[in-house]
Design goal:
Blueprint: H1 7-37, H2 39-50, E1 51-56, E2 63-64, E3 70-82, H3 92-103, H4 107-114, E4 122-128, H5 130-138, E5 145-154, H6 162-165, H7 177-181, H8 183-186, E6 191-196, E7 209-212, E8 219-222, H9 226-242, E9 247-253, E10 260-266, H10 279-286, H11 289-292, H12 302-312, E11 320-323, E12 326-329, E13 332-335, E14 343-346, H13 347-353, H14 356-366, H15 368-377, E15 395-396, H16 404-411, E16 416-417, H17 420-431, E17 435-437, E18 442-446, E19 452-455, E20 460-463, H18 467-483, E21 497-506, E22 512-525, E23 532-539, H19 548-551, H20 553-566, E24 578-580, H21 589-598, E25 615-619, E26 625-627, E27 633-636, E28 639-641, E29 647-649, E30 651-652, H22 661-671, E31 674-677, E32 686-689, E33 696-697, E34 702-707, H23 708-714, E35 722-723, E36 726-727
Parallel strand pairs: 2-8, 31-34
Antiparallel strand pairs: 1-6, 2-3, 3-4, 3-5, 6-7, 8-18, 9-10, 9-23, 11-14, 12-13, 15-16, 17-20, 18-19, 21-22, 22-23, 24-26, 25-27, 28-29, 30-33, 32-34, 35-36
Helix pairs in contact: 3-4, 9-20, 12-14, 12-15, 12-18, 13-18, 14-16
């Protein structure tokens, strides 16, 4: 009979059984956790240890111009990879030194990654060229350094269309321009290859593979033309240099279709090497000012006012306008750029003269609602949705808040802001027969197999003015180039229409600046059947005389002249005799007029009193081929600009001798001059004046006079305010202007 276990043994057995049960329970719980709760996670870990997941890069779509010239494409480059787990500790320093030297990376950056032994694979650098890979391979760095295929974006045309196209980051994602805004179409979708591997990450010969093919990005074709762009950028670079400008923006369109043929801002940059280290500079250079820059357009906006006035019937071709140099609205006096006024003029003359008063009168005839209806119909105050990213809408004073003075300013391009693409597209509607077209820059988007994904065609948005009104606008703008301020934009054997404009910018205090200006010109040809329209906007030119006619128009003429042959546009003005304009700068006005007359040119913007003045600027410039009998504009030492940047003419001081006080006051007031005198001695007839009769002074200049009653009452021998024979103006007198030095060239500019 077996012996019965003692109580102590029983106790130990129970404890043992409990421990075994607890161990079993723990095992069951652990198994439950592994298999059930975290089964998927551990399976994934195991899979990762047993498989290699290789990304298969999708080919980014190409960007091409209208002729199929590639502007952006992707090519094969390489990633440089490091596997710290297979690099011996003794080799880390050597490998870090050699790799950092070849790749141009910081040594500490490379060494830190070489020492990350917990990592199996780290990317050191992307988009490495094959030549660099060859250099690293030659160093025999072992299995710790490897390479994989990568994609790099190439821009075959360099800096052409730099702001429009934009660029990608090192990860291949679009960062600016079309590359960014159309990234969803261009990027494609990466694929992958999953391969079973051994413990050394080598593919198993008997293992299974999973292959997911990449989907390449779509190709884009733009409406832009690389050949036209090269002509534009050459002209813009020259305009930028000659005018010492902050920026120059140019836009070229087909006015009948709305296609954007060229869009550029200078300075530009090479898309293959954008200055990524200077973020602020890069962002500034990357802005496409054709759509993002808002500015007061100045007189080029008169195209819109003119079109509205003709179409609404407020103005006819037979109307005349009177300009006395200003228009009065309540307490506000809004001046014409020609402060002495243009006098009575026909509509054609008013447009050629760019007379502010005439356009203010047009606006008043239409009224707020009518003019505003046209402004909105032409597309201002809203995005054009042209397809170029970063577009601004501009700004317009709401019609319910606008006063007569505001309406007057809007009529000639102040108190309203626009973008270049808005302005040019609206001008195109005014000259193309009266239809506002949808401007666009993307012609088509296609898959690699040729399937059409998206496309654009010429689209009429709405009719804005009648065909008859549009024809009249073309006729009047042709006169601007033939006889007015746009003569520098003439193209031999072609009729050209256009409009100049100069506008003030605002300083840091929000005040209109007389020195910070934007000069622009819109030109088109042929005038009767426009096929090309070009806008150039010159931001802050630093030259003595700033007009759209001198700063912008010549380069629009150059662009159009270069493109007529390229686009096979037939001449429509071949019967006109063209001749080289002689150089008259430095001559007196009398001699300059005679010289130009002998050469077959006209001069009309001068006064008899200016005969002895010296010519400081001429338009067109010397050496330009211009139509015989066309007008040459001359600017001389008797014209200048006031503190508000407005163009003014010097005034001839009259002879005040033997005139009574009121008579002298009225005479000077009519000329824009002021009378001053000693209030205690102001009886009798004038016997002396502080500025000699026949002198030329600025409007507003004060003339101090003395009366014969002064001597009778005081017994003085010399009038007050005199020292010998030289006038001594009172520096404390309000509004005192010093007589201008006729030998000093006047600066700076005007609002046309």
């Amino acid at each position: 009979m077996a012996a019965t276990p003692s109580p102590k043994i029983k106790q130990k057995l129970i404890i043992l059984l409990i421990i075994m049960a607890l161990i079993f329970l723990a095992l069951v719980l652990r198994l439950f956790q592994v298999e059930i709760l975290k089964g998927d996670e551990y399976a994934a870990r195991a899979a990762r240890q047993q498989t290699r997941n290789t990304a298969l890069n999708a080919q980014r779509g190409r960007i091409m111009d209208r002729n199929g010239i590639v502007l952006a494409q992707s090519g094969t480059s390489y990633r440089v990879l490091v596997n710290p787990q297979v690099i011996a500790e003794s080799e880390r320093v050597r490998i870090s030194i050699e790799v950092s030297d070849v790749l141009g990376l910081d040594y500490d950056y490379v060494y830190e990654r070489v020492c990350r032994v917990e990592k199996q694979q780290i990317v050191l650098k992307r988009q490495v060229e094959s030549g660099v890979v060859d250099q690293l391979t030659a160093l025999q760095l072992g299995r710790g350094i490897s390479f994989s295929a990568d994609m790099k974006r190439y821009y075959p045309m360099g800096n052409l269309f730099s702001q429009l196209i934009g660029f990608t980051g090192t990860d291949g994602e679009g960062q600016t321009g079309i590359e960014a805004s159309y990234d969803e179409y261009l990027a494609g979708k990466n694929g992958r290859l999953v391969t079973e591997v051994d413990r050394n990450n080598h593919a198993l010969s008997y293992g299974e593979e999973e292959y997911i093919a990449p989907i390449d990005g779509y190709d884009m074709t733009l409406t832009t033309d690389s050949v036209a762009e090269s002509y534009v950028e050459t002209a813009v670079a020259e305009c930028y240099s000659v005018n010492k400008a902050k920026q120059v923006t140019a836009l070229l369109m087909n006015p009948k279709t709305g296609e954007i043929l060229s869009s550029t801002t200078y300075p530009t940059f090479d898309l293959n090497a954008p200055p990524r280290s200077d973020v602020a500079s890069l962002l500034e250079m990357s802005r496409n000012r054709s759509v993002s820059e808002t500015y007061e357009p100045g007189s080029i906006f008169k195209i819109i006012t003119l079109a509205a006035a003709l179409d609404s019937g407020a103005v006819t071709m037979e109307d005349t306008f009177s300009c006395k140099g200003y228009e009065q609205y309540g307490f506000e006096k809004i001046r014409c750029w020609k402060t002495k006024g243009h006098g009575t003029q026909t509509l054609a003359e008013a447009v050629q003269n760019s007379c502010n008063c005439a356009f203010m009168q047009m606006a008043q005839k239409m009224g707020v609602n009518t003019l505003y209806d046209y402004i909105y119909a032409f597309g201002f105050g809203a995005s054009t949705e042209c397809g170029i990213p970063g577009e601004d809408e501009g700004s317009i004073i709401h019609r319910k808040y606008i006063r007569d003075a505001d309406l007057a300013r809007v009529s000639f391009g102040q108190s309203i802001t626009v973008t270049p693409v808005q302005m040019l597209n609206a001008a195109c509607a005014a000259i193309n027969g009266g239809v506002l077209m949808q401007p666009y820059v993307v012609s088509s988007i296609t898959a690699t197999d040729g399937t059409d994904i998206k496309g654009n065609e010429p689209t009429e948005l709405r009719r804005v003015i009648s065909e008859d009104a549009s024809a009249k606008v073309r006729q009047l703008l042709q006169g601007v180039v033939e006889k007015g301020s746009g003569t520098a934009a003439q193209v031999q054997n072609y009729t050209v229409g256009g409009k100049t404009g100069t506008a003030q910018k605002y300083d840091e205090n929000g005040k209109a600046s007389s020195t910070l200006l934007i000069a622009s010109f819109i030109g088109f040809l042929p005038a009767n059947n426009p096929q090309l329209a070009c806008l150039i906007m010159v931001d802050e030119p630093q030259v003595p005389v700033v007009y759209g006619s001198t700063v912008a128009a010549p380069w629009v003429g150059d662009i159009l002249s270069d493109l007529v042959q390229y686009y096979s546009i037939m001449p429509d003005n071949s019967g006109v005799d063209y001749k080289e304009v002689p150089n008259v700068v430095g001559m007196t006005m009398t001699d300059a007029i005679a010289c130009l007359g002998d050469a077959g040119f006209r001069v009309s913007n001068t006064l008899e009193s200016e005969a002895g003045a010296v010519v400081v600027t001429q338009i067109p410039a010397a050496g330009t081929n211009a139509a015989r009998h066309s007008e040459v504009l001359l600017y001389n030492t008797m014209t200048t600009f006031n503190s508000e940047g407005e163009y003014v003419e010097y005034v001839e001081v009259p002879d005040l001798s033997k005139k009574r006080r009121q008579e002298a006051y009225d005479l000077l007031a009519e000329l824009g001059l002021r009378l001053n005198y000693d209030k205690t001695f102001c009886t009798g007839l004038i016997i002396g004046q502080s500025i000699e009769a026949g002198s030329y002074v600025l409007p507003g200049t004060e003339i101090f006079v003395t009366f014969n009653g002064y001597y009778a009452q005081s017994g003085a021998t010399e009038p007050p305010g005199y020292r010998g024979d030289e006038p001594t103006p009172d520096p404390n007198a309000p509004g005192q202007d010093q007589p201008a030095d006729p030998n000093v060239t006047p600066t700076p500019p005007v609002i046309e």
